[in-house]
Structures are given as structure tokens and as C-alpha cells.
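TODO from last week: model Alpha-ketoglutarate-dependent dioxygenase AlkB.
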Amino acid sequence: MTALQGSLLDLADDVVVGRLDGTSRRHLSHGAWVDTLTGWVGGAHGLYAALRRDVPWHAERRQMYDAVVDVPRLLCFYGEGQPLPHPALDECRVALSRHYARELGEPFVTAGLCLYRDGRDSVAWHGDRIGRSREQDTMVAILSVGAPRDLVLRPRGGGSSVRVPAGHGDLVVMGGSCQRTWDHCVPKTARPVGPRISVQFRVAGVR
Ligand SMILES: O=C(O)CCC(=O)C(=O)O
Ligand SMILES: [Fe+2]
């Protein structure tokens, strides 16, 4: 009985990367779009726990005008060819590369991980415009595990914002001109929220 319970628990811990054919696309202005798929990764608890435990999370400090401030989240970046911290993330990367191959024309090769410890952690308005994404269309695919937070997008030229919920096991892909013509952020929240881990898959030479 104990052995059976043990194996059932193991089973419940298994991380399952689902199919991508259920993604739904929302077209934004200026050729930007977002694809979403809720519950892409099943057993996401196991993935969250393993990443929380195994990733060498570190804090960063950044120059902000004339002060040096803490970046309000923990980070870890995996460059091209670097082993990812969980086999499910390799599976995600390969599945995304295959699914978007025709449209993107190149594979996802890097993974940026962020840990938002609570509602005070956030990422300010920005576009991922370091590298080719400043001039060219690209995609940034984000897997979220842990507490749900919102990814909010707004057109750079002004206009109303779009709120995209990023829940446990969900996928959000920003594509087209999204990094150039729109900004995105994960706002702070006063709601009592638990920790969230975000995994951003990008192509070579884009941050
Ligand atoms: O946490 C997220 O899902 C977004 C993170 C992000 O925009 C970034 O690291 O560039
Ligand atoms: Fe970003």
C-alpha cells in the first residue's frame, strides 16, 4: 500500500508538456500578436518545486538614473547550448521550436528565468529589444509556473493596454512586431500572491 501510494505520488509529480495546437492568437496593432495556451504544462507543481530548488537564483542591481537599485525579482539566464535546469524545459524548447518553425524560421535557443517572490516583485515596462529584436520581428515564448500574475502589454505609441493572465502551467507567446511596437510588464500587486517563476524562451541574439 505504501509502495503504491509512493508510486501514485510520483505519478502526480510528473511534468507533462502538452500539445501546442490549441494555442489561440490575439492580433494587436502594428503587426504584433500574442498566442496563449492555458494549462500547457501539466504537473507544473513538480516543475515549480524543482526550479525553485535547483536553479542558482541570484539578485541583480541596476543603475537607475543616479542610484543603484535592486532588480525586483531573482534571475538566472541559460545561454545557447547551456543545459537547462529541468528536462521538461528542454522538451518545451524543442516543442516550441517545432511548432513555430515555419513562422519563426529559427529555433528558440536561450532561456531566461525570473522568480517573482511575491507581489512586490515585478518587471517594469519594456520591450525585449536587446539585439536583432530592435529592428526585426521575433518571438518570445513564456512558460509560467507558480502563482498566477498578469503580463500587461501596451502599444509604445500610446493606446489602451491588454492584460494577459499568466497562470500555473500557461504559455504566452509574444510575436510579430510585439517587442518593437509594444511594451510589456508584470505589475506589482497588493494582492497577497505566492511566488511565480517565468521561463522566457528566445532566439539567438535577442534579450
Ligand atoms: O515574467 C514574465 O513573464 C516576463 C518577463 C520579461 O518580460 C522579461 O524578462 O523580459
Ligand atoms: Fe520582457
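Done. The helical segments are 2-13, 44-54, 87-104, 178-181.
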